[in-house]
Amino acid sequence: MLVKVRSVANVGLVTMPVEVEVDVAEAGFPGFTIVGLAGKAVEEARERVKTAINNSGMDFPSKKITVNLAPADLPKDGGAYDLPMAVGILAASGQLNFQLPFFNFKNTIFYGELSLDGSLRATKGVLLVGLFAQQTQNSKIKTQIFVPIESANEAAVVEGITVYPVRNLIELTDHLNEVKQIKKLGKVEVKELVEEGGVEYDLAEVAGQEQAKRALSIAAAGGHNLLMWGPPGTGKTMLARAMPGILPSLNSAEALEVTRVYSVAGLLEPGESLVRRRPFRSPHHGVSAAGMIGGGSNPLPGEVSLAHLGVLFLDEMPEFPRSVLEGLRQPMEDGQVQIVRAAAHVSYPASFTLVAAVNPCPCGYLGHPRRECRCSDKQIRKYRARMSGPILDRIDLHVQVPAVETDKLSSSPSLPAGKAGLGSSSKEVRKKVIDSRKIQDLRFRDESIFTNSQMKNKQVRKYCPLTGESERILRLAVEKWDLSARAYFKLIKVARTIADLAGEKDILPVHMAEALQYRQVG
Amino acid sequence: MKQGVVDATKIPNFSAVKPAVKKLFWRGKDGWDESWFDHAAAVVGSRRITEYGRRVVDKIVPQLVNGGATVISGMMYGVDQAAHRACMASGGRTVAVLGWGIDYKGITAEDLSIMNEIIEKGGLVVSEWEDQAGTLWTFPQRDRIMAALADEVYVVEAAVKSGSMITVEWAIKLGKRVWAVPGPVTSRVSDGTNRLIAEKKAQMWLPEQQVSQRTTNDAKSDDKNADIYRLLENETLTVDELARKLMRSVNEMGAQLSVMTLSGEIKEKDGKYFIGG
Given this model, what pLDDT does residue A222 score? Predict the structure, then answer.
């Protein structure tokens, strides 16, 4: 008998329907064949499915079994087809005693990996299955999805579908045979989950470094990329880690977007349904280009996509291989990455804020008040040249994070309270950031951009008119430091954000002058 | 560009150096001019120049040029190149004594570019070899030529064991005047210079006092600037340090420092501010 069961394949973030056709033939030698561009993991499903069925107290028919995964030209990989195959075999061999025409296979999706004992294992991509079910269902009948219990929570946030969390094959057959129902998964509101996220690393924990903190809040407010220069141990990493905490919390749509990427990558904790915090990714400089950008024959998201809507922190940026750094150019420009492999062409979102830390020289102690630098001029030049111009061009803010002498810190008078950017906690800074983001939302309501950093030159001219004195300061700086046209526009964008943080309509001279502090040097 | 050879044995002082220098190969736009060495000062120091060293060079060299001196150095990166650059920038005559042969092709792009610059701006490039590569022994040999050509030697930042010390030893032997610039006692690259002063082998070089005058002038014009000026008179400071000392916010402080830097009142390097010399 022939049975068709529906499942899906995730190619990148795109979900496609897969029909699992199972034929259990009376004639022919007993055997189990899988066709339809099945990858190694799918081939091995034969052993898992067979053993799981046997260990669940049911019969694996010793007949000629043929499984076809349609469409035939779409490569399939992973363990998620175990469940639909097992269901198909049980149905085709008459072990599910429901009347097939009554059970609506069209509106049912099975998805999950089997364990040898018949239980289901956490499987990646369940959120995408849920979203697919939601998009493709017709208005009359709700689509139901059967997914592993450990991953089911991912789909709980999807509106309008029925999710059955499946523990093992026995529970599933009991449900399908209408012996004992599996309890539907309760719906979870995204809004409830993304309530004001706590702050993991507070800005107030970093000693001193007021200018760096100020730069961080400007970066957060305007979506600018940030480069920190400074010797080791001055708090660069801690500052970077504090960045997600001063960005506005994820809204529902954003949380879902981030979760989709994490679901595909299989990085959601079992039982977790949503990524609630802005991601902070800090890949080590040994990362490969595929690890950074994404890759694999069935391409998985890389660090740039895992940092989507969050922060990508590159510590000791010049130590990263050049090819990896160059790969950042496309995502930084477009907010997404295209990964092309023989098997698939996928696109992942990759709209992140780059925070990079750079030592002043290879040994790290150039300009340190007490320690001596051991590098030669040539080494230093070589080290700095590793960061290519095109990447530096996309970084609006450059800030020095000097070594702090602890005795100076503790003996200095406490800073005047209420002054912007001084000793503020992340919560206070975040409030300012949110306010300035609101100003930007209003400014760009007719544009397809959201933050000052995304402005093109035309938009800079339109939205950032300079008053006489601000213009004079900028002209002076361009002349004195030989700034390029690109640097010119970057400075205006930064000044715009500084003015937004101050709640000013115009870019005042003091904003322009402060922006000059964060220009690119050397 | 012209090039040529001078018989070194005819140059005064050279008879006293050992091993004897026979010939000097030179290159330059206008050719060899004996009168350049009537008043010539060698400015030497470490390859590993600090910010302090740079500022010292920027103080000493223009003074020498104003006094009509030719500035001699070794064209190595660090203090040497800073001295050549400062000399050219203030329109002076500079002479680079190479640690390798004048025709040696294996030099780096940076060395080549400064060499061309020196020649183009009317300076001289000199060596006792034709195509000798630069190695361990050639640099100390070069040092004796610098000492012989100059009539005084300025040491800016030098470690105890360094080529600059060899130049100093020769200069003392030849009876030339040696000036050493004092530096922080914590810095290894000032060890040599400080020791020269302590052992009375060199005279301590101090700049003339001009800075405080400027401060009082500025104090009249702007109180806030004067505060910053007063602090920077004594040390180099970062934005954070200035903000903390003056109890101001970093954003205000940053804006003001930008304006002061633009007007040339103060200078900035790697996030630290100082009063330009």
Answer: 93
Cα torsion A349, A354, A357, A362: sign: positive
User: Could you tell me which CATH number the domain at A203-412 has?
Assistant: 3.40.50.300
Same domain, B159 and B248: no
The pLDDT, as a whole number, for residue A197 is 59
Size of interface A-B (CB pairs under 8 A): 99
Among residues 178-207 of chain B, which lie with CB inside 8 Å of chain A? 186-188
Task: Say if residue B70 is in the same domain as residue B46.
Answer: yes
pTM, full prediction: 0.74
Mean pLDDT of B30-58: 89
Instruction: Quote the pLDDT of residue A103.
Output: 56
Domain encompassing residue B53: 2-204
Name which of B49, B244, B255 is nearest A415 (Cβ-Cβ).
B244
Based on the domain organization, do B148 and B254 belong to the same domain? no
Name the residue among A346, A221, A242, A357 with its Cα closest to residue A294. Answer: A346
The ipTM (two decimal places) reads 0.76
pLDDT tens, position by position, B154-171: 999 998 988 899 999 999
Burial class (CB in 10 A: 0-12, 13-18, 19+), B38: exposed
Q: Which residue does chain A place closest to B235, by CA atoms?
A: A369
Q: Does B235 touch chain A (CB under 8 A)?
A: no
Per-residue pLDDT at A292 exceeds 90:
yes
Q: Which of A476, A477, A514 sits opposite B255 (nearest CB)?
A: A514
Domain-wise residue ranges, chain A: 2-188, 203-412
Same-domain status, B188 and B234: no
DSSP letter at B276?
A: -
Q: Work out the number of other CB atoms within 10 angstroms of the CB of residue A20.
A: 25
Region A2-188: CATH code: 3.30.230.10
Among B80, B250, B260, the strongest candidate for a mutation testing the A interface, having the largest count of A CBs within 10 A, is B250
> Which of A422, A500, A521 is the best residue to mutate to test the B interface, defined by the most B CB atoms within 10 Å of its own CB?
A422
Q: Which residue in the set A400, A415, A476 is minimally distant from B238, CB to CB?
A: A400
Q: Are residues B72 and B156 in the same domain?
A: yes
The phi-psi region of residue B175 (left if phi > 0; otherwise alpha if psi is between -120 and 50; otherwise beta) is left
Tens-place pLDDT, residues A428-475:
899 999 999 999 999 999 888 889 998 999 999 999 999 889 999 999
Which among A383, A370, A273, A291 has a CA at the least distance from the CA of A328? A291
